[in-house]
Specification:
Elements (H helix, E strand, L loop, with lengths): L2 H17 L4 H18 L4 H12 L7 H16 L3 E14 L3 E7 L3 E3 L1 E3 L11 E8 L2 H6 L9 E4 L10 H11 L1 H7 L4 E5 L23 E4 L1 H13 L5 E6 L2 E15 L4 E11 L9 H19 L7 E8 L14 H9 L7 E4 L9 E5 L8 H10 L5 E3 L11 H4 L7 E4 L4 H4 L12 H20 L11
Parallel strand pairs: 5-6, 6-7, 7-8, 11-12, 11-13, 14-15
Antiparallel strand pairs: 1-10, 2-3, 2-9, 4-8, 5-9, 10-12, 14-16
Length: 473
């Protein structure tokens, strides 16, 4: 027995002494969960899966041939792994095409900036847009500007994204990208530029979706060093900064995307379903390794470990590789096309959905488990902590209110969510960039993710826990 495994065993024993005795069937479930955990730590199929996905298909922009080919491969992979009821579920999609994009300073010192068009944004006129830039240090400063104050100008927001383990810095700045172009247009702007929503200082820009529809304008993200350069130029003297924007972005309205679905049927309660997964599409700049090739690989690898057990779990566990998570759609839908399709097509089945969660925050280690408020201090929570604490996963007392972006439409229909929270301290260094490639993934960290997912899913599927709040609670 290795020192690492011996330490885990001692820790598990100590936790057991603290938590007190458990029922025989719970003890058996915990032993199986520990076996799943330890098998994953010794090496899972997660890294080989994400390696094959990113190598074979590269970037998988929603609705493209690459995304569709990856979905067909995903279904074939699910069947090869032994999953039940494998399906590719197709839905219509307006496909966004990036085209050619550029942002340049034309005065007072002419120079190019490293930039990308925001996903879903519109094209410029054929000869581009050239106008004076109005620089805002914060998004709130833009919102404070009166209507008409930006008429004929280009709005530029330079607010930085704060690094945080749980990604809350990105949560705070994401409206700058999603809503900023519309707010700038409301004040008369003819173009929009923002500092990329990233936590690094490298010279590449971050893609990402913005709102689609009337009242939007051509919108771009520039790299953090270019944002700093623009700030310095603007501060030099009283000469206004002039920018030139160019984009040939467009939508193809008659496209399609798809979700890939597979499951392990429950041996006793097959109609009670736990849903896990990630999104198969990616932005077109890198190869979508951390966003979200890692997530689809982690969840499939966890389910494969459970499929290899001598018997199925009591409840059904379903894995979904959602399509079209990234790119916005024309109103009223906006984003999450695959997640909306999954929920809408199963509206009558939602009462039988036990819980939902996804892996969509890169490939770094999981550090905490969050459960619905109804599961606090439950036998499920105590059992989970016996198994997860030895691999560095703590219990987060803050109730889980969502399980990730693609779980949102299902959670909105009343399905409880849980979260296995990953360390996202450096996630936004590469998120939505050319640097989102396989080399950014640590295989051992992926295996720790698989260990946490597989062991917790087994405990949840073996339990009778009801995660929905009871009336009056």
């Amino acid at each position: 027995m290795s020192c690492f495994i011996r330490r885990m065993a001692v820790s598990a024993l100590a936790l057991g002494l603290i938590a007190g005795p458990v029922l025989a069937q719970d003890a058996a479930a915990i032993r199986t969960a520990e076996q799943l955990r330890d098998k994953a730590l010794s090496g899972s199929i997660a890294y080989p899966l994400v390696s094959e996905l990113t190598t074979r298909f590269g970037p998988r922009l929603a609705g493209t041939a690459s995304e569709q080919a990856a979905a067909a491969w995903g279904a074939e992979t699910f069947r090869r792994l032994g999953f039940d009821n494998v399906k590719v579920e197709t839905f219509p999609l307006a496909v966004w095409n990036r085209g050619i994009n550029s942002v340049q300073i034309v005065g007072p010192f002419a120079q190019p900036l490293t930039a990308v068009a925001l996903g879903g944004s519109s094209a410029t006129p054929a000869d581009g847009i050239e106008a004076e830039a109005v620089v805002f240090e914060t998004y709130q400063s833009l919102l404070d500007a009166p209507e008409g104050s930006l008429t004929g100008k280009i709005a530029v927001v330079l607010q930085d994204t704060v690094q945080a383990q749980d990604g809350r810095g990105y949560g705070a700045t994401s409206p700058i990208r999603g809503l900023g172009p519309t707010e700038a247009a409301r004040r008369g702007a003819v173009g929009y530029v923002l500092r990329s929503l990233g936590t690094h200082d490298h010279r590449f820009a971050h893609a990402g979706a913005t709102r689609v529809g009337e009242g939007t304008i051509p919108a771009f993200a520039i790299s953090p060093p270019d944002a700093d350069q623009l700030r310095r130029i603007a501060a030099l003297d009283d000469t206004p900064v002039r920018l030139r924007l160019f984009s040939t972005a467009s939508f193809t309205m008659d496209g399609r995307s798809q979700n890939v679905v597979g499951e392990i049927r429950g041996r006793e309660k097959p109609d009670e379903v736990i849903v896990i997964g990630g999104h198969l599409d990616s932005w077109d700049l890198g190869t979508g390794a951390i966003d979200d090739g890692a997530g689809v690989a982690i969840t499939a690898a966890a389910l494969k470990l459970i499929e290899d057990l001598p018997r199925n779990p009591r409840r059904t566990i379903r894995v979904v590789w959602w399509g079209a998570e990234e790119v916005s759609q024309p109103p009223p839908a906006q984003g999450l096309a695959g997640a909306r399709f999954y929920a809408d097509s199963r509206r009558d089945e939602m009462a039988n959905h036990v819980a939902i969660s996804e892996s969509d925050f890169g490939a770094e280690r999981i550090y905490s488990l969050a459960l619905p408020a109804s599961a606090a201090n439950s036998d499920l929570q105590k059992a989970a902590m016996r198994v997860l604490t030895p691999i560095g996963v703590l219990f987060d007392p803050a109730p889980a209110t969502g399980g990730g972006p693609d779980t949102g439409p299902t959670v909105a229909m009343g399905v409880p969510a849980f979260r296995l929270n990953q360390d996202g301290s450096d996630y936004f260094d590469t998120h939505h960039t050319v640097d989102d490639v396989l080399d950014r993934i640590d295989p051992k960290a992926m295996d720790q993710n698989v260990a946490a997912w597989a062991s917790f899913l087994w405990l949840l599927a073996e339990s009778d826990v009801e995660l929905r709040p009871t009336p009056g609670s």
